[in-house]
Input
Amino acid sequence: MRTSRPARIGQYTALLAYLVFLAFPFLWLLSTAFKPPRELGSLHPTWIPKDPTLDNFRQAFDEQPLLQAALNSLIAALGAAVIAVLIATPMAYVVARRRTRLAKAVTGWVVVSQAFPFVLLIIPLFLVLKYLGLINSVPGLVLVYVVWALPFALWMLAGYVRAVPPELEEAAAVDGAGRVRTLVSVTAPLLAPGIVATALFAFITAWNEFFFALVLLKTPEKQTLPVVLTHFIGAEGVADLGPLAAAAFLATLPSLVVFALIQRRITGGMLTGAVKS
Output
């Protein structure tokens, strides 16, 4: 289907405007991170710092334990992503292949659970973690992130499983492979792009999460990066803008690097999950 020239121009213009909208906060954050205090207080701010400096980064590391917070966030995000994918993969296989009322009920519950607000979940989760002795601990936070990411991971992976032709599994069954062997040797390798995409979304969600970490972690040495970033804001709401921008810029780099490294696999996984055989 051909598209007229005015329509193409409109599409490209809308796409460019959308890219500018997405890139503006990050570019402004990057610019602010390298500005000295006198430029941060200027009434006529500029995109490019006139006198760039690294003092904001040095001050940020001196004021707050950013490295320890980043390590805590990395442990929580990686742990949640890996555990959620390991649990969701066999569950998604059963939900996708078993067309029973129970499977439909599980799928419906997954959709409904995504509408639950954080405030509704934090009290029962807090009580469970208190019973298990995991309050104010990174493993407890990992458990919460797994619970939060699992429905979304199950929903995504079920779509990828449905895209795998059942004939491949039937051929494996003819050769004598059981369900577990079929899942591990036949289906799982074909789900690799989808598994990577699901793990990445779970990682980014846990890396950027703030509310659960704020409520469950009280010791400064155990707090994650999003919580530590709030320490650059004073009691009266006045932000130490330069160090805050520098720390926030560093906090966004891991997600960008991970996304850039596995971008192709994410695209392949999303396209695979979007097509049903």
